[in-house]
């Protein structure tokens, strides 16, 4: 029997993870990526145990350890001062690895892609391949690319992110929703933040209608990556653009009156733009014919649990495992099983990330003590996210119970 022709669209986090997972199971794959290089500047990713345990299985751990930084603690503070509201050790006492069986890393997105691509065997990533069309034919599924030859595959895995072209084929257009929130991002050298307590920790500073998240990245934690979220604008000005111009004053005025550590951080940034935060609405189908979605294309979520990339890795490994177990002879059964396994968990995380937005943005007259008690209980409440292991989530009968 000839090898199945497996095509992945997108060499982002989910696409590379899927290629690694398929190769790891002895299956050949080709990845088609629109960009001419995998080097998104200025973006960072926090990888949690549910993602890093899979990457470790592909041999990525030494590369990740060399390129990233493990936070000392997870800390929450209020917006007006530096008092700790709740904290949990991460690297300290090896607490996180002991609890969840794998590491938590802050890493530049381009470094993560470099480490993942470095573990792929052979030259399987085709850059400068922008997918423009998908069509079922009697020979297989035809993939059309701008300015390149078309390709026929037995299965196409859409790992092409929130603006997925494969999703347009599977579920139609119009799946993206603006969340009513937006973010400012920046990367600032830790040495330029003299007022920042615990610069090596991952920290949330919570205030009315806004929060600041930051963590150190790079091998020595020398840079602090921040992600500052505010409510609004109510309507996004241009749905064809994710990022709109903003000024230094826009950044500063959103955090006026906040603790000096925050105004100092925001004031140091040179990335003056506002990112809209978008999600995908729940899709009726994640697959159609020979096409299937993973990652943001299927379930883009707010980033407040840091789970978009991590759940994309989980999707990728689950799909690769099912393909290697069942083959492609009954595509409908295979892809139905895949989406049933993944839908419950990813929808739960999507919803929880939305609730978390509100929890982080409480006003001062809300019950802040109740919030503090919840945050104290964070490992118990959210262990189901970090402790997840794909190999325990491959049975439909138990997949729902893993939420608990
Ligand atoms: C500001 C911000 C911070 C975040 N922080 C975190 C975090 O800390 N932790 C976390 O887990 N997640 C985080 N996320 C989410 C995370 O980045 C995404 O969920 C994750 O990258 C999704 O992986 P993916 O493979 O589905 O898509 P992506 O990683 O976006 O990759 C999609 C790829 O497909 C390519 N592509 C798109 N269209 C085409 C086409 N037509 N033809 C060919 N190629 C195409 C793109 O160029 C891209 O390379 C964050 C997101 C944002 C916006």
UniProtKB/TrEMBL annotation:
Keywords: FAD, Flavoprotein, Monooxygenase, Oxidoreductase, Plasmid. The keyword Oxidoreductase applies. Its EC number is 1.14.13.1. Its cofactor is FAD. The keyword Glycoprotein does not apply. Residues 6-345 form the FAD-binding domain. It comes from the Bacteria. GO terms for molecular function: FAD binding; salicylate 1-monooxygenase activity. Pfam families: FAD_binding_3 (PF01494). SUPFAM superfamilies: FAD-linked reductases, C-terminal domain, FAD/NAD(P)-binding domain. PROSITE patterns: PROKAR_LIPOPROTEIN. This is 3-hydroxybenzoate 6-hydroxylase. It comes from Phaeobacter inhibens.
């Amino acid at each position: 029997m000839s090898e199945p022709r497996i095509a992945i669209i997108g060499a982002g986090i989910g696409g590379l993870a899927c290629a690694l997972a398929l190769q790891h199971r002895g299956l050949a794959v080709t990845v088609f990526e629109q960009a001419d290089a995998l080097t998104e500047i200025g973006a960072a990713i926090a990888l949690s145990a549910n993602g890093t345990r899979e990457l470790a299985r592909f041999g990525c751990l030494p590369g990740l350890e060399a390129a990233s930084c493990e936070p000392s603690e997870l800390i929450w503070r209020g917006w007006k001062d530096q008092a700790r509201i709740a904290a949990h050790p991460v690297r300290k006492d090896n607490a996180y690895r002991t609890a969840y069986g794998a590491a938590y890393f802050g890493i530049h997105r381009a470094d993560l892609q470099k480490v993942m691509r470095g573990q792929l065997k052979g030259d399987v990533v085709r850059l400068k391949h922008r997918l423009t069309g998908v069509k079922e034919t009697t020979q297989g599924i035809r993939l059309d690319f701008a300015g390149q030859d078309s390709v026929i595959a037995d299965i196409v895995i859409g790992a092409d992110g929130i603006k997925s072209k494969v999703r347009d084929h599977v579920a139609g257009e119009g799946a993206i929703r603006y969340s009513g929130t937006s973010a400012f991002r920046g990367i600032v050298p830790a040495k330029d933040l003299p007022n920042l307590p615990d610069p090596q920790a991952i920290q949330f500073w919570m205030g009315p209608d806004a929060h600041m998240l930051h963590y150190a990245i790079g091998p020595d934690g020398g840079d602090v990556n921040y992600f500052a979220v505010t409510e609004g604008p109510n309507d996004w000005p241009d749905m064809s653009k994710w990022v709109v111009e903003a000024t230094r004053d826009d950044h500063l005025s959103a955090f006026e009156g906040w603790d000096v550590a925050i105004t100092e951080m925001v004031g140091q940034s040179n990335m003056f733009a506002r990112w809209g935060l978008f999600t995908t609405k729940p899709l009726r189908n994640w697959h159609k014919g020979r096409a299937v979605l993973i990652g943001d294309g299927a379930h883009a979520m707010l980033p407040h649990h840091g789970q978009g990339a991590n759940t994309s890795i989980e999707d990728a490994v689950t799909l690769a495992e099912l393909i290697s177990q069942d083959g492609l002879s009954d595509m409908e059964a295979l892809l139905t099983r895949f989406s049933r396994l993944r839908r419950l968990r990813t929808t739960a995380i999507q919803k929880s990330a939305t609730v978390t937005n509100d929890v982080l943005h409480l006003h001062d007259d809300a019950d802040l003590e109740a919030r503090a008690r919840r945050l104290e209980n964070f490992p118990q409440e959210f262990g189901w996210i970090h402790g997840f292991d794909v190999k325990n989530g491959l049975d439909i009968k138990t997949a729902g119970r893993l939420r608990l």
